[in-house]
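Hi, here's the filled form for the chain we discussed.

Project: internal
Contact: R.S.
Residues: 451
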Amino acid sequence: MRRSTQALTAALVVILMGGGALVALPNARAEDNGIGRTPVLGWSSWSFLRKEPTAANVEAQAQAMKHSGLQNLGYEYINIDDFWYECPGPQGPNVDQYGRWVTDPSIFPPEGEANGIKVVADYVHSLGMKFGIYMTPGISMQAVKKNTQIKGTQYTAAQIAEPSVEESNYNCKGMVGIDYNKPGAQEYINSLVDRMASWGVDYIKLDGMHNKNVPDIEAWSKAIRQSGRPMILNITQGHFTTEIAPVLMKYANQWEFAPDLECYGCDKHGSYPLTSWPSIKNRFDYVAKWQPYAGPGGFNDYDSVEVGNGKNNGTTPDERKTQLSLWSLGAAPLILGVDLTHLDPYDMTLLENKAVLAVDQDTIAAKRIVNESARQVFAKTEPNGDVIVGLFNTGDQEQKVSVKASALGLSANQNGYSLDDLWTGKTTKAGSTITATVPSHGVALYRVKSL
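And the returned structure, exactly as it came back:
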């Protein structure tokens, strides 16, 4: 049987205060492993490369990250998603003598004694950046059938496996559960992470996670700590709810719980278009729902940022501003999913906007203030008292979007307020109501200050 989650979920108690606001008690704090104190900035292979990551094309993306100037802005993670390992079929990934996935040498060739993943990680590090890898929970059925030894122990794969529990490995299949009450279970996860540490991994994406996977989250966190190498732990969606938010906050650095942002059904050429407006629009409710759980050390991940490839993003310029604005208001990781080797000049002006990037990196998740049909308003207060507010129009026609200054927590001020437009750089003045005419699927993003 899987370990009870009762003790883990007791780590955070959430109570309803006046007005229905969610307030976390003082013992609710995010993972404090010394890294991930601000939202991660980087790139991931899935949106653009999809099923075809190779050493050459991942290294090319890393080069483009550096030479484009994105690295100077803080973008530093180069992450390989799925398809880096050998997958012969639904019986599960190929494994080594210790039951661990085997790198596909045809796309990540080794150099001498160095594993092909380590070769790429070393290259990424040589550029001054960090390297991430993809995994899913459980153990391969191939390891169970071969009854492979768990490294450094007398135990075997069959002794720790729960063959009746199917784990989510979306593309390869063949992963089954682990019983963490069994001796050797934690040691198996330790062996996976120790090998990643030896490769130079700085970021682990653990995909296909559900509420039932609480023991896996704890085990991977423990394994990272015992490895001695700092690594971001990103827990990503199968299907999980805010019920396990306390566990995520305790053991992980970021977590993704929404459906993939990629536009699989509208692909026209390769992975283009990368996304669509409906995929971005459905994030508004997620940003509002998960707002109480973000903070230094642990952040809500709303999936890839598809800004960088112009019309190939699958969105309009206004929709791209909306995505960056919403993610930044939510203090979310900004993980680019685009082809960095073909960056669009206009999109680069969006990514290079330091005023908007600062909103993301302030670590404060904005609350939803207005939720009226096609009008959405999110806001957060900075330590210096400034308020960052996003006025969104999710409708199909231009319209005015308004919010009272008092609703933003601003004190009444007969002199009014200054509005710094973070996208245009212009400053205007407002009275007790902040209003903007917002284009369809667009946003007005302001820094509001009392005069």
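Let me know if anything looks off before we file it.
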